[in-house]
Design goal:
With 434 residues, the protein is α/β, with parallel strands linked by helices. It has 16 helices and twelve strands.
Amino acid sequence: MLTSLQQSFKKLKPRKNWSFRDVGRSETTAFTHSYHRYPAKFIPQIVQKLIKDYAPNDEQIICDLFGGCGTTLVEAKMLGHKSIGFDINPIAKLITQTKTTPIKPKTLTNYKDKFLTYYKSTPLTFSDRHGRINYWFDEKTAQELERIYFAIKKIKNHNVRRFFLCAFSHNLKNCSRWLMKSIKPTIDKDKDIPNVKESFLRHLDSMIKKNEKFYSELVESGNEKVSAKMYRRDSTKKLPLESGCVDLIITSPPYVTSYEYADLHQLSLLWFGNDPKHFKGWSRFSDEFIDFRRNFIGTSSKRRKTGEFNSTIAKSIVNDLSQVNQSLATDVANYFLDMKKVFGEMYRILKKDGKACIIIGNTNLRGVAILNAQVAAEQMQHAGFEKVRFIKREIPNKMITPWRDIETGKFTGKDNPSKIRAYEYEYIVVMEKI
């Protein structure tokens, strides 16, 4: 028997004006959006539309509790709104801070010249590296990366140094043995490793051009000084914000059991974690990587957390999964319990009449429909929210592989005979604090 909420979702038809099918890659990667690869990014056009619909007044405060690579914060800044982002991943913080910090074009040009001078005077050396770095990089590549890294560290300007470090971080996967098409840590034995310096400079030049457009746009609109702050925080815990201080929340939660989010940036974590001077405390992310990754929502765990789901739909899903695969049932149960905490925190930090916009997709595991959007709506209602609208949209531009393995539920390639279509549609759940 379907609940009224499930029936409401079942009646939804895809909204063409939310698919952005005519939006090309040049528009989804405009300004600073292509600084660094990041999985499952929502396109900036979704954020633009939500801000214009639900934050029509100037200088409202917008928050993203799963900040990722900073799409929400970049768009909020460009539209003149203050923004705050949170993410448990320190690489997400580094990327977002870089993307939301415009730098005078001339400054970057000058520092690129200085970097090249520093690079020329830095000899190839062998240093004491984290063991996993030697696993992912051959010796010649590792030495060349070290040379680039040491040259970057000589840059005195903090914002410029971070800009170069972001380019360096993006380039690590390109120059490693990691299979480029894989979001999982997979060795490609036949990979043709590019020239490290050329690969780095090519991406750096692209970022410099994107920064110039970003800087010009912000100066022209008068939004250059608009605040965009990113913090490394676990959003299942109380956030460092006063109650009722946020006007609008726009966020896309992690996908349950899709992939290990921490794995995706382990190359950067390994490299920066080996540098206590410039990345204080980061060694715990690389040295205690297994423990660190367990804190990510949507990450597999063998231990079942306790508590009520505050969702009859979630309870039914977990019960059905437990009949098929107990391990998956535990993972999904933990995910729903974590998200319940997140929605409670969203309600606390929102102002009265503030809106929360959740971009989320449903999926299927071992034949069981995982109705993430419906569960989110039910949990939010239990937290005190009232429905504003539910939107169903096609995903022609989602930066994520569209296939899942039927058995494991993990993302897979198109050549897998056991593949099924994943995330053909997604939902935008818009709720209001009353």
